Amino acid sequence: MHRVHQAEKLREELMLDLDEIARQGARRMLAEALEAEVEFYIEAARGERDERGHALVVRNGYAREREILLGAGAVELKAPRVNDRRVDEDGDRQRFKSVIVPPYMRRSQKVSELLPLLYLHGLSSGDFIPALEEFFGSEASLSASTITRLTERWQSERESFMSRDLSRRDYVYVWVDGIHTGVRLGRDERLCSLVMVGARLDGAKELVAISDGYRESEASWAEFLRDLKKRGMRAPVLAVGDGALGFWAAVRDVFPTTRHQRDWVHKTRNVLDSLPKSVQRRAKGAIREISCAENKIEASKAIEAFASEFGAKWPKAVSKIASEKEQLLAFYDYPAEHWRHLRTTNPIESTFAPVRARTDLTKGPGSREAGLAMIYKLLEAAEGRWRKLTGSQVVALVRAGARFVNGELVEGSEENEEKDAA
Q1: Same domain, 256 and 182
Q2: Same domain (yes/no): 291, 388
Q3: Is the pTM for the entire model greater than 0.85?
Q4: What does the alpha-carbon distance between residue 159 and residue 180 come to, in Å, rounded to a whole number?
Q5: 74: DSSP letter
Q6: Distances 216 to 67, 246, 320 between C-alpha atoms, Å
Q7: Are residues 46 and 140 in the same domain?
């Protein structure tokens, strides 16, 4: 028994040593990266001198030590400082700002993303702290009261986000989805939220709204859209989403001018589910011939070929495409540079892939408000990684009503249409 106790004690000491090694290793690597960043900055300005020949950019010791929370734990760090005496065209002093560790940063972005992810995965406040201490080390100082304050702050941030004025925002394209997670709020109730991501006139994507939803029903989506319209949102030119959503009936009522584009990822999955496994690989290739065709005419031919090959034995699978042909091929009426973005709801799908992968969880955040706050924080963290639309310079043309045929701008189309009408 004594030997077992000694072995257990030794194991605990070894784990503590390993944690400390990880933290010290992270501190050293970060310090080296900061030194290299400063050296590169100074080297780039080496030729800039004042009237007496003195360098305008030189090392200036180290900043005061501060603690930063990283994936390997909390580490103490002294960042090198730079004395930059150069001035810009407006007469303002230039300043060195670290990209690796920006001024006043106390927690890495990865940590910021992990907190809501762990909470959303169903950890109660009681389980949250030891889980984080195991990951970050006991220095993390994340008490139950800290976690409670965090969730309350996140809820407040989401509520403020969902009441902001939208009259000065203009979303040309929007992607919508209903997010179902494994988080249980009751005996049989799972958290579902309605999410919209939009592309602005400059091509940047951003979160538009996230709200509670009941099984993605038409009533839930209608309430969601009416709230956006009430806050000043302009009708999007095109909406992209799964064909099974109650969204489509709702958007026809609230934003009747918005065109519909079905998500090809969802559609492909639904069609393949209607086919035996022995032909799914062949069918997937045939579906890709449709969605990636050079133009709408070729896509229509590919649909006919798909129907010819699979229609006799599996008419249900074929009807899933043929019945929504117009909505599936709508993207051909927009700039070719945008096609890859308009065929799928990927910004939402990719963000929630790790959450949807965990469907066997039984604990939850305790309330819909807390659950929605966690999802909001995940989307907020992911937003910085969303890429601008390819061909962002032509987004404004889409909003202005320019006509595109098979991805190409039809020059003078509006003038020609006016002449034909006369």
Answers
A1: yes
A2: yes
A3: no
A4: 20
A5: E
A6: 44, 6, 20
A7: no
